[in-house]
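As promised in the previous annual report, we have extended the structural survey to additional targets. Below is the entry for Plastocyanin-like domain-containing protein.
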Amino acid sequence: MAEQLPPEILARGDLLKLGAAAGLGFAALPLVQPSAPRNRVARTPVPLALAAQPGVLDLYINEGYLKMVDDTLVYHRGFGSRPTDVDDPSPSLTMDPTVITVAGDVVPSRSYPLEAPLPTRGTPAPLRADAANPGQFLIRRNYWASYFPARTIIAELGSTIRLRIQNRLGKPHTLTVFGAGADGGDLTTGPVAPDSVATLDFPCPRPGTYIFADPTNAPVERVLGLFGVLVVMDPEHQWDIAEDLATFERQWVWICHCVESRWASMEAAGQTVDPVQTPALPRYFTLNGRSGFESLGITFDDTVNLATEEETLISGYPRQLDVRQFGEGTEAGTLRGGQLVRLINPGICLHQMHFHGNHIWTVRRNNVDWPRHEGFVDNEGHVVLQQWEDVVELAQMDTKDCIIPIKRPPDAIDPVWFARTGDWVYPMHCHAEPSQTAAGGMYPGGLVAHWTLKGPIPGATP
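The corresponding structure token record, generated without further manual editing, is:
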């Protein structure tokens, strides 16, 4: 007789069959909390945090349990900002956003540029109404700060990135920054032994978006949570993707991930997952660490909702857009451009990011600029050309920089447009449908968000 698996490690197909056979909705299935891990090697935890050093960012390889969107606890590992142990009720498994300046300062900060004004609830306010385009606004150029999610390092071009990594777990682990070497190669600590510390110092790479992760037993450690993002900005061009590239009003970092709870249960019990013998079947999907109603900012926790609005839920006021250069507006200090979305996929599932309301314009992939003309088809069969896209494909370990225009939808006819009295909210979801669910049955409970085209401002004048 086949072994009866507990719900938190059932394959999705088995869960569907179980629900149908029992005549139950998924909400009626019991939530099994994890028992104490079995077969773990007894260890004495490393007791103290590292002594701070100027100009050095400390990361801790920790383990612990995180609550999923359906309240199930799942074992994770991660690069944290403080030392915690597996039984900590609030484990540090994601580092706090941090800015590394060209002057060598390491500044804990959710926003960049550091001195720029913070947009209220993440939404940049416009300069004033656009007299030439009723219902639209002139957008401030080079003005607003952007909020960043956990797991993000923002480094300024010209800085030296100095990382110190303490491995608090019972197996060797590695931190590798992919593509950040002078020749485009990877930079790595090499294996860091249990209860040991390693350093990784390197000159800041060129402006772009880089993934760092643990490649040990790939992709298992990455799936368990050992990953993060390095965003490099030119301090002389803080609102440009890079010098002479697209200018943006503000930017958003979207980190897509998936959680494989069977792998997590096995590793928590002291086993080593063989990804060939146990193929991945992700059970939860996240955007900036949140799923479903959490990533939509509609929880009972106002603090979480506010952070989601600031970090994830794109919003702005309608404007005219010049796609030819995303450059200056009709007068000094204004911008005929949109907002930058950095799409990042350190996970193991291919995503198809679909935005309603506006198409988005892909500028670059994996820090390689796409041409505006004379495009080509790459070896994977993809068209490489800057253009409007309805769905943006995001492969495993890919990054893409895209501009969302925040403009009047092309199908909004005048009677509808001029009758607006409030915000228009549009969904973003992944067209790879499994990513929209949690635990195989909750929809929308996965990788989902929305963006907002702000409504009229009463009394706004040109």
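The radius of gyration is 23 Å. DSSP finds six helices and 30 strands in the chain. These points will be discussed at the next consortium meeting with the crystallography subgroup.
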